[in-house]
Design brief:
binds flavin-adenine dinucleotide; about 270 residues; 2 domains; Rossmann fold; seven-stranded mixed beta sheet; 5 helices; Elongation Factor Tu (Ef-tu), domain 3; alpha/beta; seven-stranded antiparallel beta sheet
Length: about 270
Amino acid sequence: MSLMNRPYFRTRIAENTRLSPSACKIVFERPEGFADAFPGQFISIRVSEVTVPLLRRPFGIMDLSSTGISALIKVIGPGSSILAAKRAGEEVEIAGPLGGVPFDRPGGEGVVFVAGGTGLGPVIFCARSWKRENISCKTHLFIGAQTKEELLDGLYRDDFSFIYSATIDGSAGYKGNIVELLEKEIDKGGIPSELLYSCGPKAMVRALVDRTGSKFKNHYTSLESVMGCSLGACRGCTVPAIEDGKKVMRSVCLEGTVFNSEAIDWEEWK
Ligand SMILES: Cc1cc2nc3c(=O)[nH]c(=O)nc-3n(C[C@H](O)[C@H](O)[C@H](O)COP(=O)(O)OP(=O)(O)OC[C@H]3O[C@@H](n4cnc5c(N)ncnc54)[C@H](O)[C@@H]3O)c2cc1C
């Protein structure tokens, strides 16, 4: 993306719905000129009119209509807290859609999604976009959270063909982490092995690579790393990768967010 052509927009919050003590869904009015987006792309939000926090905060697009852009916001620090406290009608500046490589539309028997932490929004966007495009493959969502409340199951109940949940405290679904549950379901049979799409914390994706990598033909992952400009200029969000046997650094904001998990140098990514 050319830096001369920054896709910045002033817009307004159309809706802010609290989903749990630490999560909300925000719908922004879709500004004129905001391009069509693909699953795995994100918006970068200036959460405050003052200089603290200085950097914009990136959030995956959860859905897009002719009038609105939705995002799922998990409160983890000052920027997400300010955003989650905003009310309908308030103005914000957003940039987007950002991210150079989205999730591909699937072919074949089905796709397995694994979402944890802040990774649910982009996965919902995949399922909704493909339904609208009449892509008929079955979607299996594996979703992990700390507690039942944080599963947010009312948000995506109708979006996937099959849903498998895990909570760390055991208040709903399998008691334990989502990677363990995926391993167990693979062992039982019935989970398609063509394609795994993941989105969530690095530790979760790394565990998927280590423990279930060999069970899927392809594993693509939408990565999150701490971002500066979100436009590919500052290189603050780069991750180590291996291409043609060479070590390279790839920016999540421009050369991702979606990567083949095999291309990431997990040992080097500290
Ligand atoms: C491409 C992309 C898409 C994202 N999509 C979503 C989304 O859909 N919903 C959502 O709730 N969040 C999403 N995030 C994460 C979100 O950007 C951060 O949670 C937010 O910027 C935190 O800002 P803060 O000021 O609240 O907390 P900060 O004070 O900035 O951070 C609090 C703590 O979290 C760590 N942290 C912050 N951002 C990240 C990160 N990206 N990766 C690892 N650790 C981090 C910080 O190092 C710090 O320890 C996404 C991030 C990226 C890069």
